[in-house]
Write a structure and sequence with these properties.
This protein is of the alpha/beta class. The chain contains 11 helices and 10 strands. Strands 1, 2, 3, 4, 5, 6, 7, 8, 9 and 10 form a 10-stranded parallel sheet that branches. Helix 10 links the parallel strand 8 and strand 9. Helix 1 packs across helix 8, helix 3 packs parallel to helix 4 and helix 8 packs parallel to helix 9. The protein is globular and about 50 Å long. The structure holds S-adenosylmethionine (SAM), 6-(5-methyl-2-OXO-imidazolidin-4-yl)-hexanoic acid and iron/sulfur cluster. S-adenosylmethionine (SAM) binds next to loops.
Length: 325
């Protein structure tokens, strides 16, 4: 079992990125096998519970009110609709249901409605995750008391590159929210996006920041930018797919016991590239035809891919009708 480290140095991370591909993947897969069933992948499904009209200027995001992505804004969803979607996700094989809201930060009355959703989803026998933006101490404690399992809040990129992408809130704001979530005893889901025009050093620094947190996030989503028409990052030079795979591998090596999620961007990845990501140590995906507002691979395609790779879902006792081995 490799020890968990929180004292990574930038040069070490850069050296990992620079390894010959085969050496890097072998190392990542070896560490993966010490910590997990190598053929097991955890499955989460996403639902956008409040869509668009967001005040923030995140340059990748179709939900910002500042960009014309053609999205129709939608108010906070009624609870029955949310539970219907959660039941469907469970029937299709998801063990965790992640609810996302396009807010800079929720209002206290929003938190009460989200807590009802969390309790309803838990009653269906699923794990819960929400991503609502920045939180106050009181809101964080209310979510914990309401039974929330995971809170997703991404660092997105390195501190250096951050201001190229987002100006309406700071890196420190994000670290503060993550600290609150950690202190409240909620599991942390925190990762970033690559393919936003950042450099190699930014990818290394993002992973450095995550791995040097006082405790590794339990869940580390690595998103490939989904380019959306109307957003500032539309048209940026796409990232070399093998660099994406390397990013997964380095995340696995640095955070050996965390779930590394092959997150947004799978729709544009070949099956072979996804297979390489699993080999590099990814062991979680978003499953279901939609991410928040953009398309994800069709569930039947994922079921077939799991079959072809001999992967099974697990890490939970919940029945999976679709992806199950
Ligand atoms: N509004 C809240 C916030 O920003 O914290 C929660 C929802 S926000 C959509 C959640 C995360 O989705 C972002 O932090 C970002 O990492 C990811 N995301 C958004 N748009 C994306 C895109 N086009 N491609 C990849 N990831 C994206
Ligand atoms: C995360 O890291 N990726 C998910 C989830 N956490 C909330 C969101 C991806 C969003 C992709 C763009 C969209 O569908 O709107
Ligand atoms: Fe708003 Fe979140 Fe999108 Fe940023 S990422 S614009 S905060 S919904």
């Amino acid at each position: 079992m490799s020890a968990l480290r929180h004292n990574w140095q930038l040069a070490e991370v850069q050296n990992l990125f620079a390894l010959p591909f085969n050496d890097l993947i072998f190392k990542a897969q070896s560490i993966h096998r010490e910590n997990f069933d190598a053929n097991e992948v955890q499955i989460s499904s996403l639902l956008s519970i409040k869509t668009g009209a967001c005040s923030e200027d995140c340059g990748y995001c179709p939900q910002s009110a500042r960009y014309d992505s053609g999205l129709t804004p939608e108010a906070l969803m009624p609870i029955d609709k949310v539970l219907q979607a959660a039941q469907q996700a469970k029937d299709q094989g998801a063990s965790r249901f992640c609810m996302g809201a396009a807010w800079r930060q929720p209002k206290d009355r929003d938190i009460e409605r989200v807590v009802e959703m969390v309790q309803g989803v838990k009653a269906l026998g699923m794990e819960t995750c929400v991503t609502l933006g920045m939180l106050t101490d009181a809101q964080t404690l209310r979510l914990k008391e309401g039974g929330l399992d995971y809170y997703n809040h991404n660092l997105d990129t390195s501190e250096d590159y951050y201001s190229e992408v987002i100006t309406t809130r700071t890196y420190q704001d994000r670290l503060d929210t993550l600290g609150r979530v950690r202190d409240a005893g909620i599991n942390v889901c925190c990762g970033g996006i690559v393919g936003m025009g950042e450099g190699e050093q930014d990818r290394a620094k993002l992973l450095l920041e995550l791995a040097n947190l006082p405790k590794h996030p339990e869940s580390v989503p690595i998103n490939m930018l989904v380019q959306v028409e109307g957003t500032p990052l539309m048209g940026i030079e796409p990232l070399d797919p093998l660099v994406f795979v390397r990013t997964i591998a380095v995340a696995r090596i640095m955070m050996p016991a965390s779930r590394v999620r092959l997150s947004a961007g799978r729709k544009d990845m070949s099956d072979e590239m996804q297979a390489l990501c699993f080999l590099a140590g990814a062991n979680s995906i978003f499953y279901g035809d939609k991410l928040l507002t953009t398309d994800n691979p069709m569930t039947n395609h994922d079921v077939a891919l799991f079959g072809r790779l001999g992967l099974h879902s697990g890490g939970s006792s919940y029945a999976a009708a679709g992806v199950q081995g």
